[in-house]
Each structure stands twice: as C-alpha cells, then as structure tokens.
Input
Amino acid sequence: MRAEFVVKLKEFNRGLDDVLPRPEGLEFVNDAKRLAYIHALARNRYKDTPELGRDIGNKVRKLIDDYVISLGIDPRIPPVQLTDAEFDTHLGRQVGDRAKASEMEHAVRSHVRKHLDEDPVKYGRLSERLEELLQQLDGQWAEQVEALKTLIQQLRDFVIEKRLWIYQKLAQKAERRRRLPRKEYVNGEGFLYLGRSYRLKCVPRDTQEAPLKLAAGRFQLREDALPDARNHFVRWYSARATDWLTAKVKEHARRMGVEPAGVTVQDLGYRWGSCGKGNRVYFHWKTILLPRHIAEYVLVHELVHLREPHHTPAFWRRLERAMPDYEQRKSWLARHGIEVEGG
Output
C-alpha cells in the first residue's frame, strides 16, 4: 500500500510541476505539501517507504522540501536506524508509548529485512520473537516498549558480535598469509594428532591394507598413496575426529544438561566449530589436531551455544561454570591455532 501511495504521489507531483506556476495549479499546492509530509512521516516510521526521488520536477521538489523541513523533517536525511548512535534520542522524541512501540517495531523489522541474508537462522529467530511479543502484548503499549527494548539490545549485541567476528576473521586471514611451511609427505615429516606430533614413514604397498594408519608411534603411508596423501590424511583425521568428538560431546552434554542433536565433522574454513539449526554441533576436522584440553574447549564452547546463541556476558558466565579455566584455553587457541596444519 505504501509503495502504491508513493507511485500515485509521484504522478501527482509530476503533473503539478508541469502546470505550475500557472494559476490553475495553485489550488493543489497545499495538497502537495500535506501529502509530502505524510510521506516523510511514513518513511521515517516504516523505513521501507521508497523515496520520492528527483524525477518529480524542481519546482515541486523545492516547494515540498521547504515545507517538510519547516516541520522538522529533512527528507534528504535517511531514516534513523536502530544501530545509529542517535536512535535512542530519536525514540525519546516520540510522544506516548504507542508511538515509541511502533517506532521500535519498525526499526527491528527494517534491520532484519536488510540483513536477513547475512544470517537467516539468527535473524529469522529475531523476527519470530518480534511477532511473538507483538501478539502476546497486543495493545499493551508500555509493556511492548519494555519488551522491545530487550529485543533491540539483543539485536545490537548480535551486530557487535558479528562485527567483531568479521574483524577477527580478517585478522586471522591476514595472519594466514604468512607462508607457513607446507607439509611434505616424506619420511620424518611430523603430523599432529591430539596435540602430539607423529613422524611419517612411507611403507611398501604390500605391508598394510589401509592407505594410512597410525601404528607404533608413527603415521604409516603406503607409497602408492603418496599422490593423494593429503586427502588420505583429511579422511583419516575426519574419521578419528568424528569418533572422539562424539564421545566427548556426549560426556560434556550430560554434565552440562544440554541435548545436541548430533555431531558433524567437516571443513569449516576459519572456524573451529559452529552450532547449527536444530541443535546440531559442527566441528572442523582439524580440531582433532589440537591438544586434548584445547579441543575440549572448542566443543564445550559450542555446547554452551545451545543455551546462549550469542557471545553475551551470559554466554561467558555459563562457559566459565562449565570450564573454569576456559580463558587460558581460549588464549592458547588464539595464539597457536593458526599454526595447526594437518596435511
């Protein structure tokens, strides 16, 4: 409906611009001013109302801009978004709880609409929570304002968390560009497994059935498997990670009172772990290269996300209860995780 209103308003303004300054157009000037003010109010409130643009003619544009500005709205300034520094001041200018609740509701809707593709799961949950509280508190404007304050704070925390995550990943990516030594599949090369380095021994084809195995304190790789050595290591690590992490997740989940739907091991890029939709936890196959106590930090971190989706103070408090020395483990991972290379 708002989009249709803008289309009709543009047509009206273009027609008026063609007629002005002839006398027959003057009787419609006040209508143009009032409609422009309604448009400005709607654009600031709903934040999805299209701009009038510059295609309505300079005469009418100046006329309606001067009028709307005189009433305290500058149409050249974009609507205030809830992540803007001045949002709380803008909200305070709204008269009455109903107006405040409406402003907050549409600020949340606008933000979710713009950023939904960045994280459909988390923004989808925020959208669902918005609809729930609006339905539960229908017509209770003061209660809506308080509930929306909490929701907006959660959204802002998530935005900050996402921004920090991006900065951290960019820093990690830059760090990775330091050319770490590439693994060579030759006798004596060291390969990690649960924090310990095991030397590689290349063996004749007829000495073992599996292309790669860990035996007698050495990785043993068949010579005929050398051309595909990296993939053999990744498959071996992934299988061991699935078994080890699944057992540890069950152990810690029982202690922490959470119920993950399952464990998946795969390449997660720069992430060690992730808590996905449906309470399934995901881990990078390289987690099995880490020392045991560091790998356990990664999995406990993800299990806490089953209760606390974001890195809020409540998340870190819950993590500390589950693992009192998590800060030392987290610090070790931040410093040395970049050095882990499994093939």
User: Anything to note?
Assistant: Residues 228-339 form a domain with the Zincin-like fold (CATH 3.30.2010.10). The first helix runs from residue 2 to 19. The chain has a mean pLDDT of 83. Strands lie at 190-193, 196-203, 212-215, 218-222, 262-266, 273-275, 280-284.
